[in-house]
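wait is this the right file?? whatever heres the structure
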């Protein structure tokens, strides 16, 4: 098994267009394996050798576009999300973290593009206070853990271009909701919500301050059973939603549907049933 320093060096070479790097022990190991060569104080690599190195990384269980710093001071959960070699990480697991996943290419954290992980249920764990820069088309805060981890299987009526999904949070993880709010404000990013389609879920979207909310296509729910018990337990939220949403808006149509059905629809059931989500503006009364 290669050391984390060798993997870090391999990732640096794989992601660079440079043919020359300052040689060190890690580069010497790569050269000994047939990936480039060391001449004096320089490590030299051809484009063909770089492509071979990418294949080698994948065979080692490390996507070649993984940010190299994850193998310098990486968190075990971060590395495990990318790699089969969890013990390469060196930082303990006690700091505050948020769970995220890039839904398409182009999301960048601290200048490094986040990989779109190919494994179902995989995500990244980020230290909530280590983000210096964040580039994304939108942050999407997802209410429930199962819906977050399976979101890439969700049918969408819109292309999730450069979206970063953020798990809202529970007792085991730092609050993704407050983190996403802070990041959206600090980096001027769009903020979306994906809650349960019920009064409590809509109240969560309102509390988030989301610009838009992902809700099911109500035409697909005509004969789909919801939970009347959930709706009955959420009368305080229901009153608030009714008093907040702009009458006549697209969102108001969704609210009216809930009122007619007097039932709620959880993310998990909508996902399991293959229902399509639409992006709806969260229009509030002034």
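ok assuming it is, sequence goes like this
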């Amino acid at each position: 098994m290669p050391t984390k320093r060798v993997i870090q060096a391999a990732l640096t070479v794989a992601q660079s267009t440079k043919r020359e790097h300052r040689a060190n022990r890690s580069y010497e190991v790569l050269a000994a394996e047939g990936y480039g060569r060391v001449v004096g104080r320089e490590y030299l690599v051809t484009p063909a050798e770089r492509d071979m190195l990418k294949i080698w990384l994948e065979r080692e269980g490390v996507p070649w576009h993984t940010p190299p710093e994850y193998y310098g001071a990486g968190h075990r959960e971060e590395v495990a999300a990318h790699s089969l070699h969890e013990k390469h990480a060196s930082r303990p697991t006690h700091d505050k973290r948020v769970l995220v996943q890039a839904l398409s290419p182009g999301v960048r954290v601290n200048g490094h593009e986040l990989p779109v992980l190919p494994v179902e249920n995989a995500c990244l764990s980020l230290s909530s206070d280590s983000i210096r820069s964040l580039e994304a088309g939108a942050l999407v805060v997802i209410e429930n853990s199962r819906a977050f981890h399976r979101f890439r299987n969700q049918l969408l009526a819109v292309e999730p271009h450069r979206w970063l999904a953020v798990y809202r949070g529970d007792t085991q993880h730092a609050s993704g909701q407050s983190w996403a709010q802070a990041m959206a404000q600090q980096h001027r990013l769009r903020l979306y919500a994906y809650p349960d389609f019920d009064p409590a879920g809509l109240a969560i979207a309102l509390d988030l301050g989301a610009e838009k909310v992902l809700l099911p296509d109500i035409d697909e729910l005509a004969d789909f059973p919801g939970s009347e018990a959930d709706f009955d337990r959420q009368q305080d939220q229901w009153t608030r939603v009714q008093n907040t949403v702009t009458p006549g808006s697209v969102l108001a149509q969704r609210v009216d549907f809930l009122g007619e059905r007097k039932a709620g629809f959880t993310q998990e059931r909508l996902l399991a049933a293959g229902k399509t989500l639409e992006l709806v503006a969260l229009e509030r009364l002034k």
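The chain has two domains: 4-69, 76-281. so i think its the right one actually
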